[in-house]
Amino acid sequence: MAITAHCCLRVQNSSIPPITSNGIISHYKHMTIGLILKRSIVFFSFQIPEYCRVLEEGEISDHCFDLIFAFDEIVALGYRENVNLAQIRTFTEMDSHEEKVFRAVRETQEREAKAEMRRKAKELQQIRRDAERSGKKVPAFGGFGSAGMSSMSSGSIITDTIIEPEKPKMGPVPVRPTGSSKALKLGARGKEVDNFVDKLRGEGETIMSSTGKMPSLASNVLPPPVNVESVHMRVEEKISLTCGRDGGLQNMELLGMITLRVTDDKVGRIRLMVNNYDKKGVQLQTHPNVDKKLFTSDSVIGLKNPEKSFPLNNDVGVLKWRLQSTDEALIPLTINCWPSESATGCDVNIEYELQEESLELNDVVIAIPIPSGVGAPVVGDVDGEYKHDSRRNVLEWSLPVIDAKNKSGSLEFSVAGQPNDFFPVNVSFVSIRNYCDIQVAKVTHVEGDAPVKFSLETSFLVDKYEIL
């Protein structure tokens, strides 16, 4: 009894509450609340490094809304949510369905606006043609019978070219004021970009120039002539060809045109003498305002009304032709690709042969696809030069000239892959000689048949040349 009374006296005089059932429950309740609060604070602190790189006031201020959204996922109405860090990250980064719907509606509206714009352009073009046929005065848009013919009567020459909308004129560039500027300056960062671009070029990557034009396999535009006379003509042909890998011409289409440009009104009333030595069966067609009877009988291009002159400072297509065939004998340059499987992959033999010996093809590039991830091919015998573009997975076989003296050649290489991996083979070239033997031999005045000095530009280009 004395010991029990002593213990009770010690308990009453101490700060520890009496050991009762209610005291024990209250004590552990305070401990539990404190532990929960401590864990919540620790969980809050874990969120801060997710959004802030350093624990500074400025960094936290920049990401305050991100932190508030994350904290809102931890505590709701004063109670802690049962979530982890991964769930909070998923909740805060969740896509908005309303935003997706808005973007889809916006894209649909843009497509409809573009379609409406094309429809309006066609309507304006049709209105312009109807006005020209009825003899009304219409604005000049370029082409056959436009700016240079705007002063003519209702019988002016009509063009079928597509009307392009007038480009907006650029306003004057504001002059930057002198003095110190707080704008961003390019220093070492610019050098790093240049070094990065050089590395890409070293790896074979094709880099766009500052003009934004990508270089093609071959230069599809020949340099303009040095001496251009007041009467200048351009004879241009483009070929589109598709062949099978086992032989056979699937389709070949060649389009040609003679374009006339007159820059002096003194030589506007002229006639063109055309030499047509074609034996391949091309279909010729003259412009509607060209005298067809005169061309059929004498191969002379002249206007129906000899009192009128050709438009000045305007490119006029006076004669065009078309050749379409599946005859293999008409293929100008044949390509034969033979991939054969071996123990280590494929041995590929590819060869070319010029069938039209009158042609001289320049800057010929034969592009053979290479399977990705197999490394550079091992090249054996080769006529000309080659380059492996590892980023585009293409082996480019380059030949500066193919003519009657260099009408055939071959390339051999080995690389891992299957025979189907090396197709389609693409070919590109340019030529200063046209495929169909149609040329302008002479230009004369309408009155007196006096000769007129003229300049001539001939080009034969590739639109598509594939071996599938």
TrEMBL record:
- Primary role: The coatomer is a cytosolic protein complex that binds to dilysine motifs and reversibly associates with Golgi non-clathrin-coated vesicles, which further mediate biosynthetic protein transport from the ER, via the Golgi up to the trans Golgi network. Coatomer complex is required for budding from Golgi membranes, and is essential for the retrograde Golgi-to-ER transport of dilysine-tagged proteins.
Q: How does it sit in the membrane?
A: Peripheral membrane protein
Against Pfam families, the record matches this protein to:
Adap_comp_sub (PF00928)
Tell me the protein family, please.
Belongs to the adaptor complexes medium subunit family. Delta-COP subfamily.
Q: What is this protein called?
A: Coatomer subunit delta
Q: How does it assemble?
A: Oligomeric complex that consists of at least the alpha, beta, beta', gamma, delta, epsilon and zeta subunits.
Q: Which domain of life is it from?
A: Eukaryota
Coiled-coil stretches noted in the UniProt entry, renumbered to this chain: 105-134
- Entry keyword annotation includes Protein transport: yes
